[in-house]
Amino acid sequence: MIRHFHAARLLQVGSSDHSSDDGCNNLDSSSAVPSNPRCPANAVEIANPERWWLATADLMPWRSDPDAGNPCPRYADRDEIRWDALGRILTEIARRLQGGEYVNRGSSPSVFEVQFTPPAGGLTGPEANILRSWFDAMDAPRADAWHTQLEDGRRRVWQVWENKPNAWLPIRSFLLDYLDRIPAGGPFLATSIRERAVYGRKVLPPIVARRSPQYAAALERAQKVTTRSDPFE
After folding, report:
1. Is the distance from CB of 74 to CB of 17 less than 8 angstroms?
2. How many other C-beta atoms can be found within 10 angstroms of the C-beta atom of residue 124?
3. What confidence tens digit (pLDDT) does each residue in 52-106 have?
4. pTM of the predicted structure, to 2 decimals
5. Which end of the chain is more exposed for a tag (fewer CB within 10 A), N or C?
6. CB contact set of 216 (below 8 Å; sequence gap of 6+)
7. CA angle 163, 165, 171 (to 5 degrees)
C-alpha cells in the first residue's frame, strides 16, 4: 500500500531537485520557495519535529551525484551557493531539534520555530530559499533511516556533504508523513503504517535512535496507530 502511494506521489510532486534533466533548461534556486513573513532571517519553521531524524554521511553510503555525467547541472547557480555555510546552519538546526530547542509561535500546534546563526553578512536569496525548501512540507529531503534512496532533496543533500562532510542533516520521515493520510486511507493504510513502523523500529540503527529519540519514539507510537484523525492523541 505504501509503495503504491509512493509511486503516485512521485508522479504528483513537481520536485525541482528529484527528477533528472538531460537538457540545459537550468533552474534558478532563487525562485524555489516563497519567503515566510512570520519567520525572522535567523529562523525556520519546522512542522512535526518528531518526524525528522538526523543523518550523517556514513548513514547514506548509497547516495550519488544526481548531476554526474550531465554537462548542465539542474541549478544554474549551484556553484555560487555556499554549501558549507548551509551545512553549518543545518547542523545547528539538527542539534536544536535533538535538544528540543524550538518554540511554537501559535501559527499551528504542530509547527515550531527553530533559530540558527546566519553567516557573516547573512544568507543570499538563493541560499535562504534552499534553507526554507529543506523544511518545506513538499520539498524536504524525505526518507526513513532504513531506506536506500531519497524521495526528494538528492542534489541538496549531495552538495552539502560534498562541501561539509561532517554535517548533520535533518531528514523528514517518509513513513510518518503517511499518518496525515489515515482519514482518507482508512484501516488498510493504518495497518500498513503499523507494519512498516514495527519493521523500521526493529532495523533502526542504534546511532539514529540515540541521536533522534523523538523520531524513534514516533515510530513506536506509529506501531499502535488507528484510523482516528489524530493517531497520537
Report:
1. yes
2. 17
3. 999 999 999 999 999 988 878 777 888 999 999 999 999 999 999 999 999 998 8
4. 0.83
5. C
6. 201, 204, 208, 209
7. 100
For residue 113, give the nearest of 100, 129, 128, 125 by alpha carbon: 100
Residues with Cβ within 8 Å of 196's Cβ and at least 6 positions away in sequence, in order, are 2, 175
Residue 35's pLDDT band (boundaries 50, 70, 90)? low
Mean pLDDT of the chain: 84
Grid cell at residue 193 = 503504517
Place of cell 544554474: 76
C-alpha dihedral sign at 149, 133, 18, 86? negative
Check if the beta carbon of residue 57 is closer than 8 Å to that of residue 161.
yes
Please provide the DSSP assignment of 194-227 as one string. Answer: HHHHHHHHHH--HHHHHH-HHHHHHHHHHTT--S
| Domain layout of the chain by residue ranges | 36-222
- CA-wise closest residue to 197 among 172, 219, 216: 219
Of 212, 170, 215, 171, give the one whose Cα is nearest residue 197: 215
Q: What is the residue-wise DSSP string for 31-71?
A: GSS---TTS-TTEEEEE-GGGEEEE-GGG-TT---TTTT-S
Q: Which residue has the higher pLDDT, 44 or 19?
A: 44
**Is pLDDT of 9 > 90?**
no
- Cβ pair 185, 155 in contact under 8 A: no
Question: 80 phi and psi, to 5 degrees?
Answer: -95, -10
Say how many residues make up the chain: 233
Q: Residue 49 CA to chain centroid, in angstroms?
A: 11
Q: What is the pLDDT of residues 132-146, one digit of tens each?
A: 999 998 899 999 999
